[in-house]
Amino acid sequence: MSQILYTSGLQKSYKTGKETIPAVNGVDLEVFSGEIFGFLGPNGAGKTTTLRMLTTLLQPDAGEVSICSYDLYQQPEKIREVIGYVSQSGGADKDATAWEDLILQARLYGMSKREAAARASDLLAALGLESIADRRPATYSGGQKRRLDIAIGMINRPKILFLDEPTTGLDPHSREQLWDEVRKLRDLGTTIFLTTHYMEEADALSDRIAIMDQGQIVLTGTPASLKDAISSSGTQASLNDVFLQHTGRYNKSAQIA
Amino acid sequence: MTFLSNLQLFYSRKIREALRNPAFVMMTLTIPLLYLLLFAPMLKRFTGMAEFGSTNVLNFFLPGMIVVLAVFGGLFVGFGMIDEIRQGVIERFRVTPASRLALLFGAVLRDVTSVMVQAIIIIAVAIPFGLKVNIPGLLLIFPLIAMLTAIFSAFSYALALIFKSEDALAPITQGISMPITLLAGFLLPMSLAPGWLQVAAHFNPVYYAIEASRTLMSDHIDAQVVMEAYAFLIPLLGLVSWWAIRKFKTVIS
């Protein structure tokens, strides 16, 4: 498989008053074309900061990043052409209908009116959103809103789609529906870079995962290999066990107990 | 070309957003009328006083009202952008190759448009009350009002990006709006002020806009005052835009 995203020694710190807090502290990542890459970590691990650097929203303090062989510092415009990003808050405009919002997004990528309309129709159909085409977000269900956010992020047929906690706040049914959509996207050839808090989600969707804690990557591998590595004979460890062991949460709670 | 097409897309989006907000449309249209209705009747007694222009008192006060419409029509727009930041809309646009300058100016031009509409309403309605219009003067007032709105609007959007919170933006914009309008002689002419206040006024863009608009609406246009206003506002607009666009490129987190 060919490499689509690569980072080395990625760093970002925030200044609050006199203190400098390292949010991302030397992250090395490799994502391959066509995979669903699960990016996990506890709150405050630095996942979103990493994602914001990869999507050109935030300038790293140090480190190399290349996406589709484009360098983040030299060719951010090229990177913007080939990525899609769905942030935690989504990004659908509350004052626009789904149709208007998709057309605007398509036009911002330079599509003609006709191309934009064709692309918007395709995405509405693919994500089962025809019924909300002419409605504004106030009337959508949580699942519909999320699928529209994803449609917006997909409008430019990105080579790699970043999804930041896409199922947070969804009911179990909508979540499973969204998982199916994400798998469909991958089957159509889109690489997916997914952050999530939910271990069963990462386990169900990801081809490979990386676990981040305190600004660093503590573990990378396929879900199966990571689970097997800590399973003892007879008991099968879950991804949750892997996560807790490697983010140090087991040890701390054991000490408190 | 990307810039112009992006600008048109962002501008249309903001205009649509405004037209879909009934409260915005209502207030945009009624505020100019309220200024006239609640303030103009008090002017009768000033007629003939030298400080207020010898000919027509409405011609003296109306420019102040228009300029204040521009200040308020620009300074408070940042609140809307905080909401957009929270929704993730701004971030979503920043991940696309769209021009950042177009993203900012699409919004700024919408604000300029709404202030222009208000200015036209207030002038049209004031004519039956005795406002005397001279067309060349008006043609030079409108660019000034547009620039002043753009300055405050771009400034307000930049503040929104920096602070991202209504709790910070509210006191800052309130704190700015009070001194800059008072210190521009929008109600009483600055010629009534003591020397130190007059000196302070010369650092205030609103002062230049009001002085120039007044002379442009009077019988005897003072070209010097008009040139000073343009010479102050054009570079200031450039400076504020440059600063705001830097914030659009870097700040949001």
From TrEMBL, chain A:
Residues 5-239 form the ABC transporter domain. GO terms for molecular function: ATP binding; ATP hydrolysis activity. InterPro entries: AAA+_ATPase, ABC_transporter-like_ATP-bd, ABC_transporter-like_CS, ABC_transporter_ATP-binding, P-loop_NTPase. Gene3D superfamilies: P-loop containing nucleotide triphosphate hydrolases (3.40.50.300). GO terms for cellular component: plasma membrane. Pfam families: ABC_tran (PF00005). Coiled coil: none annotated. Belongs to the ABC transporter superfamily. This is ABC-2 type transport system ATP-binding protein. It comes from Chitinophaga dinghuensis. The lineage of its organism: Bacteria, Pseudomonadati, Bacteroidota, Chitinophagia, Chitinophagales.
UniProtKB/TrEMBL annotation, chain B:
The keyword Membrane applies. The chain crosses the membrane at residues 21-40, 60-82, 103-127, 139-163, 175-197, 225-245. Keywords: Cell membrane, Membrane, Transmembrane, Transmembrane helix, Transport. GO terms for cellular component: ATP-binding cassette (ABC) transporter complex. It comes from the Bacteria. Signal peptide: none annotated. PROSITE patterns: ABC_TM2. Residues 23-251 form the ABC transmembrane type-2 domain. InterPro entries: ABC2_TM, ABC2_TM_bact-type, ABC_2_transport, Nod_factor_ABC_transporter. Belongs to the ABC-2 integral membrane protein family. This is Transport permease protein. It comes from Chitinophaga dinghuensis.
